[in-house]
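Structure in, sequence out. Go:
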């Protein structure tokens, strides 16, 4: 069964690369108009152009997710161009790895600001429109770290754990309003995991924890985003859906 998202508008953050790029392209292939948002304006333009060249509808909507005004402007441009936002998918993020006793305050705050506050800013910018129309699909991205913690990644784990609690809270608040909220819990070959993937010893140790013993490609995660954004997932909300080779089973 092919999922159809004709008439839907999606706003995707972190969409210049990795999970965001794959999701933006998959949503467009399903028929949605896609606002490609990323801190890299050039990256956003490139992905939007690639979607357009493949016959889809896309808009470059660059924004710094940790800057409320920047997010508001990007969402406003999306609404001006496409009339609304039905689907929001938050894929932006950074890491600042360090053992906790070596964590710098500015690094802690930056990770929390981009991941957790940024997710808040993006969803807060679109929620009123979703409530007015009585329809919305919120798909956030968390991590195994947000469930089980992560060595040397206390700030990242705290932020991702916060996103899980935030997403479940949205699901409870808007369950009767036609709005669903779900989180994807992936393990994928992206820039976020590059440090592990480029260190043979670290990678071997990490992959041994994954029953499938491999990384997912971003294109393996994107179909779940499309599904959760569709009418087929109308009775699914407040869930953390693992696409991580069995790591958190």
């Amino acid at each position: 069964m092919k999922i159809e998202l004709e008439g839907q508008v999606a706003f995707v953050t972190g969409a210049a690369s990795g999970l965001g790029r794959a999701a933006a392209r998959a949503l467009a292939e399903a028929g949605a108009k896609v606002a490609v948002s990323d801190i890299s304006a050039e990256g956003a333009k490139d992905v939007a152009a690639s979607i357009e060249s493949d016959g889809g509808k896309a808009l470059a909507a660059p924004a710094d997710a940790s800057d409320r005004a920047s997010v508001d402007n990007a969402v406003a441009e999306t609404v001006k161009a496409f009339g609304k936002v039905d689907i929001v998918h938050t894929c932006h993020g950074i890491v600042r790895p360090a053992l906790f006793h070596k964590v710098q305050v500015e690094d802690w705050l930056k990770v929390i600001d981009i991941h957790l506050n940024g997710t808040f800013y993006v969803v807060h910018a679109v929620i009123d429109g979703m409530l007015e129309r009585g329809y919305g699909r919120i798909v956030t991205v968390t991590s195994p770290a947000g469930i089980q913690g992560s060595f040397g990644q206390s700030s990242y784990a705290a932020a991702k754990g916060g996103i899980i609690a935030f997403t479940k809270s949205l699901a409870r608040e808007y369950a009767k309003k036609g709005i669903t909220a779900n989180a994807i819990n992936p393990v994928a070959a992206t820039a976020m995991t590059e440090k592990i993937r480029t260190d043979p010893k670290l990678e071997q140790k990490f992959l041994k924890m994954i029953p499938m013993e491999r990384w997912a490609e971003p294109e393996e995660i994107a179909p779940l985003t499309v599904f959760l954004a569709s009418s087929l997932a109308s009775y699914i909300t407040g869930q953390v859906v693992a696409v991580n080779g069995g790591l958190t089973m």
